[in-house]
Amino acid sequence: MIISRTPYRISFFGGGTDYPAWYLKEGGAVLSATIDKYCYISARVLPPFFAERHRIVWSHIETVASISEILHPAVREGLRFLGFTNTAGVEIHHQGDLPARSGIGSSSTFAVGLIRALTDLHGNNLSTHQLALMALELEQNILKEHVGSQDQIAAAYGGLNIIKFSTDGSFQVEPVAVKRERVADLENHLCLLYTGSSRIGGEIAASIITGIRNKTDELRQMRRLVDQAHGILAGSNPLTAFGELLHETWLLKRRLADAVSNPEVDEIYQTARENGALGGKLLGAGAKGFMLFFVPPEKQAALRKALNRFVFVPFGFEWEGSTTIYKGRADVTASP
Questions:
Q1: d(CA 135, CA 168)
Q2: Under a CB-based contact definition with an 8 Å cutoff, are residues 132 and 156 in contact?
Q3: Distance CA 291, CA 326 (A)
Q4: Position 210 confidence tier, pLDDT thresholds 50, 70, 90
Q5: In a 10 Å sphere around its CB, with 0-12 CB exposed, 13-18 middle and 19+ buried, how is residue 141 labelled?
Q6: CB–CB of 65/53 below 8 Å?
Q7: CATH number reported for the structural domain that contains residue 125 in this entry
Q8: What angle do CA 164, 169, 173 make, to 5 degrees?
């Protein structure tokens, strides 16, 4: 049996410039971090004495005779993509610390963790770069999902990074080199609030992609904020300017598509600003999900009280990226 552990991410700046429709023409960059909340995927060869050929456990329990019958699209196409057949049955279980469709990159985290587990089951050891590339291929080209390219890379690499995208389609991951005390200070200023899952994130992303050619000014400004935010983190002045930049990037993001925000999100954001938040943003494409706020520590109690109808999720950054945390007997592998 193999068990992979893959982190979710929070994106600070540059979201939108990681869509291929944009960066293949102008380049792009994002500043993001992975957090200590994870997606776990276990995979094993299903012993032949079970009646079913494959067993997939997620929000459904699927027991099927062939890969083509699997309902979960990423699992079905992921197995095909990695060369699995019906010769050897597989069993796959998914568990997540955070809910899906909530803006923290859950679909891409799942894809990365699935590929990590299944390639290990084959006995292959992928590099971090290969893992990210394969997850991008699965989501963007095989599943044809309306997703950018930052989530898969962040989940594979882990850490606090600037991810740069080139017009030739390549990417570069640059860890943000700051002192541990500075990172701890940033963590202490961040609050993560859950507003509920959204089933229409893909539709919002599709509308953003469709309208990219009309949002050139906004996306160029969002790209510039990545460098400004990096300068703030690398400096020694108080981090308040980082929070103010988050407010600026939220205002820009709301202009990318009408559906990015809604009255409920606007009301939450305004309440947060009135109770100490210097800035914040809705993570993911928009509509619902997790909201991230930059709040001085001494004002966080007031914020939590004002928004106590929602769940606040404590978190810290993590630095490993996707990894295998359990590997069973090496002689039990699935042949492609």
A1: 18
A2: yes
A3: 32
A4: low
A5: exposed
A6: yes
A7: 3.30.230.10
A8: 30
Angle at 152 between CA 147 and CA 154, to 5 degrees: 125
Give the relative orientation of helices 240-254 and 216-234 as an angle to the nearest 10 degrees.
Answer: 170
Token pair in block for residue 282: 């809705």
DSSP symbols for 162-193: EEEE-TTS-EEEEE----HHHHHHHHHTEEEE
Distance CA 313, CA 324 (A): 25
Distance CA 152, CA 312 (A): 25
> In terms of residue numbers, what domain contains 255?
180-312
Between β-strands 28-45 and 54-57, what pairing exists: parallel, antiparallel or unpaired?
A: unpaired
Q: By mean pLDDT, which of 9-13, 99-103, 121-125, 266-270 is the weakest?
A: 99-103
With respect to residue 222, please indicate whether it lies within any of the assigned structural domains: yes
Q: Please check whether residue 79 lies inside any domain of the structure.
A: yes
> How many Cβ atoms from other residues are within 10 Å of residue 98's Cβ?
22
- What's the pLDDT tens digit per position in 81-119? 999 999 889 999 999 999 988 889 999 999 999 999 999
Chain position carrying tokens 């598509």: 257
From 230, 292, 240, select the one nearest 265 (Cα to Cα): 292
- Residue 159 CA neighbour count, 13 Å, CB half: 15
Return the amino acid letter for 58: W
Please work out, in degrees rounded to the nearest 5, the angle formed at the alpha carbon of residue 10 by the alpha carbons of 8 and 15. 120
* CA torsion, ordered 32, 254, 272, 228, to nearest 10 deg: 40
> 284 and 165 in one domain?
no
Q: What would you measure as the largest C-alpha separation in the chain, in angstroms? A: 64
Tokens of 5: 């552990």
Same domain assignment for residues 30 and 155: yes
Helices (H), 211-330: 216-234, 240-254, 263-274, 300-306
> What pTM value is reported for the model?
0.93
Token pair for 304? 């939590």
Evaluate whether 92 touches 85 at the Cβ level (below 8 Å).
no
For residue 3, give the 3-state DSSP assignment. strand
CA 237 from centre of chain = 29
Shared domain check, 215 and 83: no
